[in-house]
Amino acid sequence: MSELSINPARLTASLQELGRIGSYVDGNTGLHGVNRLALTAADGEGRRHVAAKMKALGLTVTTDRIGNVYARRPGTDNALRPVMMGSHIDSVPTAGMFDGCLGVLGALEIIHTLNDANTTTRRPVVVGFFTDEEGSRFGTDMLGSAVATGRIPLETAYALQDRAGLTVRGELEKIGFLGNTDEKLPPPHAYLECHVEQGPVLRSRNMDVGVVTGVQAISWHELTITGKSAHAGTTPMELRADAGLAAARVNLKMREMTASGRYGTQMRATMGAMVPVPGLVNIIPGRMTATVDLRNPDDAFMRAAEADLKAFYELVAREEGVKLDWRQTARTDCAHFDGGIQERIASSAGRRKLVNMPIVSGAGHDAQEMARVTRAAMVFVPGEYDGISHNPREFSTTEQCANGVNVMLDVLLGLADERD
Ligand code: HGY
Ligand code: MN
Ligand code: MN
């Protein structure tokens, strides 16, 4: 454990400050939520706010061609590859103020702590935030880190469109973050990310820290179902081509699949978006756009589930007399984090008397992209209210956040002192 520890109150203040950008009052709960959907004006404002904090800490800030922002702190030997800490500050439209932001602001709090202590590490240190981790607007997640590590070509990313037909490239330019440095990130010496668990496991077991072993497989589909709009009162059931019913059958099929055990016992399936056209009470939906989100901690089970679901798409189209087109919008296999760094996370937590456990991440993270190009690992912190996330009720206490960031501080110092 290093003698250093971060300033918990300063970390919480920085989270609250950023949380005010893009904030709204949630109609259902009256809670303050955060909406900084990727590449919107709010995201642009949040980006400028964090970049200003980076500069105020004496860091050299660059923006690459996909809008990833990196802030570099020199070490004593700048010929060595840096250790990087990062995450994202874009949010889903109904977010809290911790998802992603804890990793970026926690890393900046570590820099602040090093500055206060006049500590210079051997290796340079880089703090970054990646573009559009959430994927909510342009349809594929971890976009910026996937481009930085070569999984998605820049031009493919640029051409992605939101529902209004606006492109990633155009929206990056509009908010002033169409940068000019090479989007391919030279692999850092190692990569660390602190993140809220976004689930109930750690809190329910009274754990202080999660040592993340990896990330489960993710598969997203976008369905476009075309049937026939017709009168709800006059059209006999047997003469319908009901796009809404077809989507509902897919949703029920996914529920049956997760309960069947045929794809393991951990599979999760969600139809998050269901948009009927015309979407009126007395008209059979002639068209339906729907999304499918499959998660599975086992790659073979995921592939089996995808194959069976695609077969079901064809069956439903035949039986309901609709056209069902679908496209894969995101797909990542299970990711595995570096064992050695996991051990360092666990031993730092142990020295700080923090109870900790290994955990697989249910959510996708930029760290899984970085794990393809360098040693990567994550530190999870528990969340209150069953760790709810992608919801304004998302909340982790100052102590919970500080515990995770202090562990990341310890591991950073060890990695940044490595000669090779
Ligand atoms: O969808 C996810 O797992 C992440 O929040 N982008
Ligand atoms: Mn996140
Ligand atoms: Mn998220």
Describe it:
- The protein is α+β, with helices and mostly antiparallel strands and 420 residues long.
- It has two domains: 8-215 and 334-416, Zn peptidases (Aminopeptidase, 3-Layer(aba) Sandwich); 217-332, 2-Layer Sandwich (Alpha-Beta Plaits), CATH 3.30.70.360.
- It has 13 helices and 18 strands.
- It has helices at residues 8-19, 41-56, 101-116, 143-148, 154-159, 168-174, 201-204, 243-260, 299-320, 339-351, 366-370, 384-387, 398-416, and strands spanning 23-25, 32-34, 60-63, 69-73, 83-87, 125-129, 190-196, 209-215, 217-226, 230-231, 268-270, 274-277, 283-284, 287-296, 323-332, 335-336, 356-361, 375-381.
- Strands 3, 4, 5, 6, 7, 8, 16, 17 and 18 form a nine-stranded mixed β-sheet that branches. Strands 9, 11, 12, 14 and 15 form a five-stranded antiparallel β-sheet that branches. Strands 1-2 form a two-stranded antiparallel sheet.
- Helix 1 (8-19) packs across helix 13, helix 3 (101-116) crosses helix 13 and helix 10 (339-351) packs across helix 13 (398-416).
- It starts with 7 loop residues before the first helix and ends with a helix.
- 49% of the residues are buried.
- (2S)-amino(hydroxy)ethanoic acid (HGY) is lined by residues 133-135, 141, 363-364.
